[in-house]
Amino acid sequence: MKQNFGxxxxxxxxxxxLGLILLLSMTACSKKRGGAILEGAANxxxxxxxxxxxxxxxxxxxxxxxxxxxxxxxxxxxKANLRMxxxxxxxxxxxPALGIEVARIILTPDSLKVIDKWNDTYYLGDYSLxxxxxxxxxxxxxxxxxxxxxxxxxxxxEKFKGSKxxxxxxxxxxxxxxxxxxxxxLDSGNPESxxxxxIDDEVHSEILGRFGEDEEALTLKRYWVRPxxxxxMRCIITDLLNLRSIQADYSGFxxxxxxxxxSSVEYAFADRRTETAITMEYSRIKLNEVTSFPFSxxxxxxxxxx
Length: 306
Prior knowledge:
The chain is of the alpha+beta class. The chain has one domain: Lipoprotein localisation LolA/LolB/LppX (outer membrane lipoprotein receptor (LolB), chain A, Clam). The chain contains six helices and 16 strands. The chain has helices at 11-24, 44-53, 128-134, 140-148, 177-185, 201-211; strands spanning 60-71, 74-85, 89-95, 103-108, 111-116, 121-125, 160-165, 168-173, 219-225, 232-239, 244-251, 254-256, 259-261, 264-271, 275-287, 302-303. The longest helix has 14 residues, at 11-24. The chain is globular, with a radius of gyration of 20 Å. It starts with 10 loop residues before the first helix and ends with a strand. The relative contact order is 0.20.
């Protein structure tokens, strides 16, 4: 199913902007990490502490991105420049293979700015654009953490159980057996061909009848952690209330300023209507180098018709 802004735009710009926004919905001095090795029993308290200690620590981040967005009816590749200031701003410049910038995006915790240079239009506003067109609730911190490979939506006050899975340590929120089994059936799966989030209406009604609209009770979070350095390898968050899921798989881990950061990420987003997969390869990653976030709208540009 095509997803669009609801205005006339060439397909490349539309998919580039929506794909990155969907994906993208540290202290000044880096410190050395120590004691992050996981071994022995899968003690949830130990896994949680190690995983938190291994999170990427930064104030500023910049990188080059090679990105591929796959929807049921389209596959699109493009390049992007990424700049971030933690908890403040995410800046993106998007270019096709020819290297000519076609779009520029700025995201902050409460605002969205877009320049579409291909259609001479712009958008200045909040995230209602994304939420109405893509059926998601935008969360800046979720997006920020997913970009750098930190555990998204992790809450240390929640109760987790620990286990081992295929050589990794696994943290799973303590949910009812009914919720856990239903959520596990709704995994996004292979990012190249994610499974649809389909569940029998009767089963879904039974779950809602028991838990109502308790979003916390109906959300299952799972974090797979590498034993050698406690870095996050995979994260799956399944929302049974709204029947949607987000999966991120991290690889290509590399050392940078005494920290470990993934250089390759595969994301899968799914709901009952459609699936979107995004693969991103990072290069020229820089931490804690102060940068700028240029954004100016040419006079001839007109507001997007939403």
